[in-house]
Structures are given as structure tokens and as C-alpha cells.
Design goal:
This protein has 58 residues and is mainly alpha-helical. It contains two helices and no strands.
Length: 58
């Protein structure tokens, strides 16, 4: 899913997206925490979604 499509989807569901794109790598939890200036325990690197529509977005 493209960034713009993700933004559009979140907005259509009533969420104003707060997508953060760090300047440095966020490939690992440690890197993401460092890039965002937070503790590693505050980073969710895996999200699971229940698919109901053909594209998994419903």
C-alpha cells in the first residue's frame, strides 16, 4: 500500500493520519526508538489486521 493510499484510507475511516517518516533508519525496534526519541517498548513493528474485504481494507 502506498503512503498516499494509506493516508486516504485512514481519513475515510475518520482518522486523521499522523504518519511519521523518520530521517534515519527505522528498520529495527532499536533504530526506530532512536530515530523517534522514545523507548523501544513504545514501538510497534508488527501490525495484524482481520481481513474481511477482498483487499483487506474493509
Amino acid at each position: 500500500m502506498s503512503l498516499e493510499r494509506a493516508r486516504e484510507y485512514l481519513k475515510s475511516k475518520g482518522f486523521e493520519s499522523n504518519i511519521i517518516i523518520p530521517e534515519h533508519s527505522s528498520a529495527t525496534v532499536a533504530e526506530a526508538a532512536q530515530a523517534l526519541g522514545c523507548e523501544p517498548g513504545m514501538i510497534a513493528k508488527t501490525l495484524s489486521f482481520l481481513q474481511s474485504g477482498p483487499d483487506g481494507l474493509d
